Amino acid sequence: QVQLVESGGGLVQPGGSLRLSCAVSGSFVGIYTMGWYRQAPGKQRELVATIASGGSTNYAASVKVRFTISRDVANNTVYLQMNSLKPEDTAVYYCNAVRVALRRYEYWGQGTQVTVSS
Q1: Are 32 and 97 in contact (CB under 8 A)?
Q2: ∠80-16-83 over CA atoms, to 5°?
Q3: I want to staple 49 with a disulfide (CB 3.0 to 4.6 A). Which of 44, 69, 106, 113 is the partner?
Q4: How far apart are CA 3 and CA 11, in angstroms?
């Protein structure tokens, strides 16, 4: 069982920055595809960014250039650096871990709120 715990959310003004962290139980960060998703009120959960076990990254078009996903395999942590935040980035951000090996293994964190407002 993989447990994910997000932190780093909060209230920030437009144009500001935040760094989210996802602490992962066990040595799974280098094995699973790790990702960040977000869900705004009244909307479906959407992909923000992923980092594969080999290190390749993928971003939603709306956050490319502004957000950076990274990982610290030794410390079992995944990060999401968010710069130039906009009000439309307001959402609950969730950490995700996925691995497909004979069957699909997928885990979610509890989420952390990010609010971008003046």
Answers
A1: yes
A2: 35
A3: 69
A4: 25
